[in-house]
Amino acid sequence: MPKAANLREAFAADLGRERDMIPAMAKALIACRCETPLGDTRAMADAVERLVGDVPEIDFERHAGAPHIVNLVMRVRGGRPGRRLIFNGHMDTFPLVDATRWTLDPAGEERDGRLYGLGSSDMKSGLAAILFALRHLARHRETWAGEVVATFAGDEETMGEMGSQFLLDTAPHARGHAMISADAGSPRVLRFGEKGMIWLTLQARGRSSHAAHVHRGDSAIDKLLAVIGELQKLRHFTVNAPAAVTAAIAEAAAISEPLSGAGESDVLQSVTVTIGTIKGGRLRNLVSDAAEATADIRIPIGVTVGEIEALVLGAVAAHEGVECVIERRFEPTWTPPDHEVIELLARNCTKVIGAPPVRNMRVGASDARLYRRAGVPTVVCGLTPYNMGGADEYVDIGELLAVGDIFALTLAVYVALCVEHFSYGSGLGLPYSPGLNHPNSYNWGWREYGNRAEAGDCLNCLKNTNCRSRFC
Ligand SMILES: [Zn+2]
Questions:
Q1: 122 C-alpha to center of ligand 1: Å?
Q2: Total Cβ atoms within 10 A of residue 203
Q3: For residue 162, how far is its CA from the centre of ligand 1 (angstroms)?
Q4: Domain match, 127 and 211 both
Q5: Over the stretch 83-123, which tens digit does the pLDDT of each residue have?
Q6: Do 282 and 339 have their domain in common?
């Protein structure tokens, strides 16, 4: 087997060869529109296939979650068995709104070091960075162990049931030992978790009467407002988050808030209640007989959907004539911020952009939550979005090239788990940490680990990570 140092040098030396392809690949993906609704990914699947079709080492599979939602699994196998690292992204985008306000071509245009276009930041540039890393690894296939799989899904903008969730449920290689999502974000802020959510509709029924004769009526709007008032009190719900989460959010604030908006840290650590729509009544001088409101409740780490739901239903039950329908719910999810895959990504972000990234939660939901729910440690590291969801959406091309490098280097280290062929402190340029009580990809010494943890644990660990050794 090649020595780790040689591996790393080979990867790094070769990295520049296709780097200039990344903006062109992103542009090819932006040119292929895939707006929600309808979120038809068929043409995008063809466009992606054209970008990797010349690399025979990449196995290309289509998995249709619905006739118009084609999801992709691209798999590269190393020369030896080992762990599987997943890169995930979504192919669908927001719809093109404010078409007249775009000053550049929404179908893709480069100007002044920026790449403009609908979906450029969310997240076709991220997809291009993944494809670059995959192509790069494929060329060095024989030298590493394990598998690298890219899952490109549809249906993300509408919560992923027919996209990433469908792949997790049905595609044999869509799950792995860790996942990196390239969804919109920043290589300066690695996102290790996401808030949970409840979507609900409140319906109030009353009895109408003339406003001069309120004693004969029963106002649906008054009842609705009373329950809404109860829901708004949830904003003060006490949150007991694990210390690691609270500390990470506090540490991240100085970098994360300027990128994501002042107040982000508070929002990440509290229950938020948004009454999105409200309607009711027929006339100003008529007591209302019906009223309806919809709400979006976001739930931080340390609180469960069940706790909030019980309070919501309690408030509703206390007000006769009001009903509640819960349309959607999912729990908050997180991966420990010091997890191996996040450490590894952080080291390569530092190497490429010259400053260590912070680790934070993410306010919005992405398919990352589906992977965490499936038990796969997951981190989001994407491109900084500018004007996302509006006119002249763009990414910085310098950052796009950097994210391509970060992904390729991270993949390279993760899969270069040629056990026993590394020497500590050299090769990967990462320090040996004797305090660690578990093996990981940059501290990988089975003999040392065995001495500390006993052979039984060692073999279990090999089994859990699907690694083979001559002992099992
Ligand atoms: Zn996205």
A1: 5
A2: 17
A3: 15
A4: no
A5: 889 999 999 999 998 889 999 999 999 999 999 999 999 99
A6: no
Q: Tell me: do 257 and 373 sit in the same domain.
A: no
* 440: containing domain: 422-472
Residue 2 lies in a domain: no
Tokens of 78: 């190393």
Residue 228 lies in a domain: yes
Nearest Cα residue to 134 out of 45, 65, 205, 51: 51
DSSP-H helix ranges across 284-380: 305-317, 340-353, 368-373
Expressed in angstroms and rounded, the spacing between residue 124 Cα and the centre of ligand 1 is 9
Whole-angstrom distance, CA of residue 103 vs CA of residue 27: 17
* Rounded distance from Cα 68 to ligand 1 centre (Å): 19
CA–centroid distance, 119 to ligand 1, in Å, is 9
Do 203 and 184 lie in one domain? The reply is: no
Statement to judge: residues 313 and 180 lie in one domain: no
As beta bridge partners, residue 253 has: none
281 and 369 in a single domain? The answer is: no
Task: Please tell me the pTM assigned to this model.
Answer: 0.85
Burial 232-250 (b: 16+ CB within 10 A, else e): eebeebebebeeebbebbe
Specify the CATH number for the domain of residue 129: 3.40.630.10
Give the residue ranges of DSSP H helices in 354-419: 368-373, 397-415
Q: Is residue 129 part of a domain?
A: yes
Are 54 and 115 found together in one domain?
A: yes
Closest CA to 332 of 310, 313, 306, 314: 306
Instruction: For 144-200, write each residue's pLDDT tens digit.
Output: 778 899 999 999 878 889 999 999 999 999 999 899 999 999 999 999 999 999 999
Single out the residue of 109, 229, 86, 225 nearest to residue 164, CA to CA. 86
* Number of independent structural domains in the chain: 3
